[in-house]
Specification:
The complex is a heterodimer of chains A (309) and B (378). Chain A is α/β, with parallel strands linked by helices. Chain A contains eleven helices and 14 strands. Chain A folds into two domains: 2-215, Rossmann fold (3-Layer(aba) Sandwich); 226-292, 2-Layer Sandwich (Alpha-Beta Plaits), CATH 3.30.70.100. Chain A is globular and about 75 Å long. Helices cover 69% and strands 6% of the residues of chain B. In chain B, strands 2-1-3-4 form a four-stranded mixed β-sheet, with helices on both faces. The chains are: A alpha/beta (309), B alpha/beta (378). The interface between A and B is medium-sized, with 34 and 27 residues. The structure holds adenosine-5'-diphosphate (ADP) and magnesium ion.
Chain lengths: 309, 378
């Protein structure tokens, strides 16, 4: 069953097309990753799906309601965590939760119940009186997520929820996302971090408002990338990259830490040629092997090096 | 309309207010401070004007005239001179603000029923003070005239007559207390500025921080949001109004002659009109700075110039008189003067209150319309 069905959704700001005719479906209770570089149109899309921004063209049915015709009904079924931290820093943790609970019209009993739950998932039990502004980033994000789902919506939209947070907090945050999804909540999440995309059931990638790729992580790696990827470890990374870039059997190159990834045509399997080239150039190759492409390899292929997320 | 949601918004707004105690104190005390400053600045009463007398005659009547001037608190006699040449020096060195010159023929002219001339030389640098000196001295001269005319002329058997009866001027405002007359204008101006500015800032702050989006995505209605956001500031402004009245009583002896419930109701209506200006401003501005500038501009200037606070509306050109309707302060000043100074009832002011309600409805309607349009487009 689909939670969200998007059809030809388009948003223009004046002449500028921010979201360009995109269509996709999101299944109930899945974790749906929405990827794209800065300015690709992710937030604009999310805001339309939440019913707070009117589409210029097209429509989406979110939780059974049309965002174009009935945005106010859409709002009743969803939670939204915006890209900017949007709890009040000058209010205490408990005061923030009281506020959002109140805005969603929760009864006192329900509110108390849900507050307990949020405090638990944010690791803030017994700390309701702390000033929200004084909390560390990771805790803030969890609290914001808790506030966004305080009314237990069927669908939750998270706009770059983990940006600017340390890796451990990010892992914890994703555990929370998994928990929500396993309880039946549809999670629609945008992210910058490609390793996080691997945790999603399905992904779409947009670029300049246009849909570029869609599928589960495995499909993306096989459907969109026909080339083979080799990982090369060498002593002089930059020189090796510059050298290999010039070869016509190499389609794409990129740097991954101390390694280089090169993508070559599928037929190519002459590893000795690479070794020989490097030797002539005075570069020692420590290791070279064919790898399963990462999502990053796929996106570099789809978007080009300079646009990588 | 859901009361729970309105309460949640209002409660949160109060929390913000009480979290920042310094700001709260400023909001509460600033109006009183303004009242003090403005109150004294627009105090047109001049007392203890220093005068020097150049009495060329030194007669009974000239003495009596000088006495009548100096027994009031308006003039302090600081000395006598006995030749012309000192006049310039005294005015130049500001030893006195005015010099009374009584000519040699003062009594003779008086008894011979000619015009008895007294010369007042006034330091005209401060035009306003000079005007007032002129006003008071004329008044003093004339009342003496009246007295002397009555006494003297009746003794010689002619019908007594009073030249000019000055009492009506003093009767209406016995101490010539201009402050009392300006207090309603001050209250209106202070309230409209504080209400409009505080409301617009609090709304725009949510836009700036991005928290407005989090609120919009709940199914709250814009009317609920606006009521919840403005309620705390209306209450705060009511407290302000009470404090201003108390300060007005303590500092300037202003007593409310009319009914307090009526005063409360009118103030509430005026505050709703004032906050609706703040709401409209917040809808069209995206930063607190812009909101602050616009809100102060559109409230301060009209409530000062066009409200009848300083300049009487009747003496403005017809077209300007029409424009004066853009400021709710005009109507509230009428209401306040009626309730506070004259003590009249609701029958005398209902039309003013009705206008204020109409004003608020139009502005709020416009604000909600623009807000709903803009919100969905951006
Ligand atoms: N309210 C707006 N008015 C004009 N342009 C906008 C507005 N909101 C977003 N844009 C533009 O639309 C593009 C997509 O923005 P956004 O959806 O925020 O991207 P992302 O979230 O993927 O980084 C950007 O170029 C941005 O400048
Ligand atoms: Mg974004």
């Amino acid at each position: 069953m689909n939670s969200i069905e998007v059809k030809n959704l388009t948003k223009k700001f004046g002449d500028f097309v921010s979201v360009d005719n995109i269509s996709f479906n999101v299944k109930q209770a899945e974790i749906f990753g929405f990827l794209g570089a800065n300015g690709a149109g992710k937030s604009t899309t999310i805001r339309m799906l939440c019913g707070i921004l009117e589409p210029t063209f097209g429509d989406a049915v979110v939780g059974g309601c049309s965002v174009a015709k009935n945005p106010d009904s859409v709002k009743q079924n969803i939670g939204y965590m915006s890209q900017r931290f949007s709890l009040y820093n000058d209010l205490a943790v408990g005061e923030n939760l009281d506020f959002f609970g109140g805005v969603y019209g929760l009864s006192n009993q329900k509110l108390n119940e849900r507050k307990k739950w949020v405090l638990k998932i944010a690791n803030l039990e017994g700390k309701e009186n702390l000033l929200t502004g004084s909390l560390p980033g990771g805790i803030k994000q969890r609290l914001a997520l808790g506030a966004a789902v305080i009314h237990q919506p069927d669908i939750v939209f998270l706009d770059e929820p983990t940006s600017g947070v340390d890796p451990i907090s990010r892992r914890n945050f994703w555990e929370l996302i998994n928990e929500l999804s396993s309880e039946g909540t549809t999670v629609f999440v945008t992210t910058h971090y490609l390793e996080e995309a691997e945790f999603c059931n399905n992904i779409i990638l947009i670029d300049a408002g246009r849909l570029i790729a869609e599928g589960n992580p495995k499909q993306l790696k096989t459907d969109y990338l026909k080339n083979s990827i080799y990982e090369i470890e060498s002593d002089r990374v930059i020189e090796a990259l510059e050298l290999l870039e010039k070869q016509n059997f190499v389609v794409e190159t990129s740097i991954f830490g101390n390694n280089i990834h090169i993508s070559v045509e599928e037929k190519f399997n002459d590893l000795s040629r690479i070794n020989k080239l490097c030797e002539e150039g005075g570069i020692t190759i420590k290791r070279i092997n064919k790898i399963v492409p990462t999502l990053e390899d796929v996106f570099i292929h789809l978007l080009g090096n300079e646009k990588i997320l | 309309m859901n009361l729970k949601r309105i309460r949640a918004i209002a409660k949160k707004e109060f929390k913000h207010l009480f979290r920042d105690i310094r700001m709260l104190l400023i909001l509460l005390l600033f109006p009183v401070f303004l009242l003090g400053i403005f109150g004294y600045a627009v105090n047109f009463d001049v007392h203890h004007i220093k005068i020097v007398v150049y009495d060329e005659e030194n007669s009974m009547i000239s003495k009596e005239f000088i006495n009548s001037l100096t027994k009031s608190t308006y003039f302090d006699l600081v000395g006598y001179i006995n030749n012309d040449s000192q006049i310039r020096e005294i005015l130049d060195e500001k030893k006195a603000q005015g010099i009374v010159v009584i000519s040699k023929s003062f009594s003779k002219d008086f008894y011979s029923k000619q015009e008895a001339k007294i010369q007042f030389l006034i330091d005209g640098v401060d035009g306003n003070t000079a005007n007032i000196i002129q006003f008071y001295s004329t008044a003093a001269t004339q009342s003496l005239n009246a007295k002397l005319t009555t006494e003297v002329l009746s003794r010689v058997g002619t019908k007594s007559f009073m030249p000019i009866d000055l009492r009506p001027i003093f009767w209406f405002n016995p101490d010539l207390k201009s402050t009392r007359f300006f207090i309603p204008g001050l209250i209106a101006m202070i309230l409209i500025i504080t209400a409009a500015v505080s409301v617009s800032l609090s709304l725009v702050r949510e836009k700036e921080r991005g928290t407005i989006e989090q609120i919009n995505v709940s199914s709250i209605k814009s009317s609920e949001l606006l009521i919840g956001k403005t309620l705390p500031y209306v209450l705060l402004a009511l407290v302000n109004a009470a404090m201003i009245l108390i300060a007005g009583y303590i500092l300037f002896d202003v007593v409310v002659k009319g009914s307090y419930p009526l005063l409360f109701l009118s103030t509430l209506i005026f505050l709703i009109a004032s906050t609706s200006i703040g709401i409209l401003v917040s809808v069209v501005s995206d930063s607190q700075q812009v909101a602050f500038s616009i809100a102060t501009m559109v409230t301060m200037l009209p409530s000062f110039i066009l409200s009848g606070f300083v300049f009487p509306i009747e003496s403005m050109p017809a077209i300007i008189q029409v424009i004066t309707n853009i400021t709710p302060a005009k109507f509230f000043i009428n209401v306040l003067r009626a309730i506070v100074l004259r003590g009249v009832g609701v029958f005398a002011i209902w039309d003013q209150l009705l206008y204020l309600i109409l004003y608020a409805s139009i502005l709020l309607g416009a604000a909600i319309l623009i807000y709903n349009k803009k919100e969905a487009k951006n």
